[in-house]
From TrEMBL:
PPR repeats lie at residues 45-79, 107-141, 239-273. It comes from Sesamum alatum. PANTHER family: PENTATRICOPEPTIDE REPEAT-CONTAINING PROTEIN. One of its GO terms (molecular function) is RNA binding. This is Pentatricopeptide repeat-containing protein, mitochondrial.
Amino acid sequence: MTLEIFFNEIPSPDVYISTKMISSYVENFRLDDALELFDKMPVKDIVMWNLMIKGCVDCGNLEMGLRLFDEMPEKNVISWTTIINALLRYRMIEKAKGLFWEMPVRDTAAWNAMIHGFFVNGRVEEATSLFEMMPDRNVISWTTMISGLDQHGRNYEALLIFRNMVAVGVKPTSSTFSCAITSCANEGNLCLGCQVHGHILKLGYAFDAYITASLVTFYANCEQIEECIQAFNEKLHPNVVVWTSLVTGYGTNSRHEDALRVFRYMIRLGIVPNQSSFTSALNSSREMEIEQQESSEQPLIL
């Protein structure tokens, strides 16, 4: 690599240049080269330490990352959050929890990481409890809660969190809205879903592809097929998720011929179906065959 050639020509590279080289090694998964250079450095600042720990984790060597974390002469909140995220990624929840409470200073990112980790590991009550203990919350905190509760079938609680978020004046992001609409769809709460849709229009998120997909699914689940089509037609996204939501929505409402029509049109437009698209189309095709078979078996009444 060109950077490595230039680096090797420098007689005594400083910490900044060496950190750049370590970063390049890590990005190319050359962990051994990164560690060798790191060990050679007579002076290492906290940025280099943090980079090396993250590099070990990203390259799949958690053990080395933990060892470097323990050897650090000085740690900042980034050091702690990096290793906690790594432990959560490897589902070492108890060790991550222990380090979290050992942190001298916990920033919002650390709290968010721990809440997300609890949800990923199915520990919903602990995630909720930690959220309630947070001294400061940002939009990521609220969105993590809404998404986590929704993923564990706690849709009503997710919607309560969303309402509280809006009530305290936190502005939702497109991700927040998508999670909230998904909760409305799963809960079948047409009234609140329409209110959320109103917020989406007001804040200008209506043309976001994932929000569109969530709205289509929401209206389909609430058996509001015309509103479902209208949400889809607001902006024709060349996005497989949006098209899949309409195919599935038609199928959910037993409009299987329409589902297959949309599926075929989607393919003609060059949008490559995903597994969900195929599954929905196959389900509609199967249902149509059953309906046709039942129709042909109807007895003749004279």
